[in-house]
Amino acid sequence: VNQIARIADRQLEGPPSAGRKRGTMNRSISNQVLERRDRKDSNWTERDEARFKEALALAQEARQRVEAHDPQTHEHGVRVAQWAMVMAMRMPGFDRRRLRRLEISALLHDYGKLMIPASILNKPGKLDDHEWELIRRHPEIGAMSAPVSPEFVNRDAILWHHKRFDGGGYPAGDLKGLEIPIEARITSVADVFDAVASNRAYHAGGKGLPPGRTLDVLNRAAGTALDPTLVALFGTIVGETADAVGGDVGFQTLSVASVIQVEAARVRKYLRREVGSYDLDDPLGGLDPPPGLEDRLVKAVVRASLDETSARNVVRHVLRLPLSESFRREDLAMDDAALDAAVRKAGNHEEAVLYLRPDLSRLSYHSIVVFQGQLWLSVGEQVADRTRVMLIR
């Protein structure tokens, strides 16, 4: 995964090389989009930032309630927001305000399921007509009751995320194709991808499909259930990651690449705005960072799926500043032998499982932490009297 990031860094930062005309053109287009977006981002004020953080706290609390009600969707909302942002960040017209509204909307796309009995959501067999009708109502319920100000949630994205591109799906209505709000179409692709690729009780053996086979499912639904252009865009993103690792990419590797890699690229974009051109390996030229630079970069990249501590870890990584370990030895409910055996190689990435003392706060969604001097994507969950932290890099 470090190789993925370095390849992406060189493509973003380095001069174009011979034989890469197509990549050069794509970077030129991307730069134009970023420049237009940056001009629009200037409308984002200190008050907007404070209000966004309030909305984010409400959205995270609401998502956790949904997951407690339907445990098999653990972290589903965060990943849907993650995949939605990966797509939207490549599209013109999404300034910072619109991106943040989309991310919170995707985070809350299943909020209406709180009103559906858990016995129906987790029913192993076929739903009867009445049960299915209740399920079909969750987008409407969620759009009406999402506990976030309309300033930071696009209720159409929640309402129409199960509306098919060909006009089918739910809720009922005449919308189809490009008439469906783009935020809803983005959320729909992200939702289907994560549902098929994640482990769910209704999958064979409870296991989700790998990204390549999941894309086959999306491609078969392109033009009928899903927006074909967005499916193609998402396929390109997965393909680029696979090219970078030199083979098929697993779900975990894709998840890491689309969080750590993308967030580091965002930090570098803002850093270029602050200091101009710089050396990737020594961005500060051996000097201390200018006063306030680190805090300004952190503030610029905090968003719904990236908390402030995670953002600071990424910023310090990009600036090549010393990283502070996220877990002290006394925080870990593990002996030395278990800690030594915690890290293992898994395909194109590494994984580690840590157990924390029960009195430590639960890591409730994707965080970027520092362990053994490296950045890891972290997902936490409560297990009996301990918190289990799963790390991926």
State the main characteristics:
393 residues, alpha+beta, 16 helices, disordered N terminus
Secondary structure elements and pairings:
Elements: H1 2-13, H2 21-41, H3 46-69, H4 76-88, H5 96-107, H6 118-121, H7 129-136, H8 138-145, H9 155-159, H10 182-197, H11 211-221, H12 228-245, H13 251-275, H14 293-301, H15 308-318, H16 336-340, E1 343-346, E2 349-356, E3 367-371, E4 374-383, E5 386-392
Antiparallel strand pairs: 1-2, 2-5, 3-4, 4-5
Helix pairs in contact: 1-13, 4-5, 4-10, 4-13, 10-11, 11-12, 13-14, 13-15, 14-15
What does this structure look like?
This protein is an alpha+beta fold and about 400 residues long. It contains 16 helices and five strands. The chain has a five-stranded antiparallel sheet. Helix 1 (about 1-15) packs parallel to helix 13 (about 250-275) and helix 13 (about 250-275) packs across helix 14. The model is unreliable at about 1-40 (pLDDT under 50).
In short:
The chain is an alpha+beta fold and 393 residues long.
